[in-house]
Design brief:
Number of domains: 1
Largest sheet: 5 strands, mixed
CATH class: Mainly Beta
CATH architecture: Sandwich
Length: 135
């Protein structure tokens, strides 16, 4: 499995195999003071799942770290199982939209952060962003 795209967004959902995104593609969160509790925030991703990863449980983990690589204490874990549509040519990957919502993340200070997406312990991607203070 590999991620072909991943982005932060205000909200997202998967319906009928399609990814619907609201307020997506940003890399900066502006806050007035720290610590800053943020409302809804989602990580929207698109994965390609090859034939070798179909019909088995795939352990997906998402962890929030700061720019120094220290865990922030926000994590999501889940199992993904992908089948093959009957009309998919042999050997072709399945395209799978994935959404992981987060609510009430508290950012302790202004700095860079990243959601680290891992599959069975191997890092697939880092979605980087920063939190800045504004007046």
């Amino acid at each position: 499995m590999k991620l072909t795209s991943a982005m932060l967004c205000d909200a997202a959902q998967v319906q009928s195999g399609k990814l619907f995104i609201l307020g997506g593609g940003f890399d900066t969160i502006s806050v007035r003071e720290f610590p800053a509790a943020h409302g809804p925030l989602s990580l929207a991703m698109v994965a390609e799942v090859g034939p070798e990863d179909r019909q088995r449980d795939l352990e997906l983990q998402i962890s929030l770290v700061d720019e120094d690589g220290h865990p922030v204490g926000v994590e999501a874990k889940g199992m993904l199982r992908v089948g093959a549509p009957p009309n998919l040519p042999p050997g072709s990957p399945s395209v799978v939209p994935i959404v992981s919502p987060f609510n009430g993340i508290t950012f302790p200070e202004a700095k860079g952060y990243a959601f680290v997406v891992s599959l069975e312990g191997d890092e697939l991607a880092r979605v980087r962003f920063r939190v800045v203070q504004v007046q």
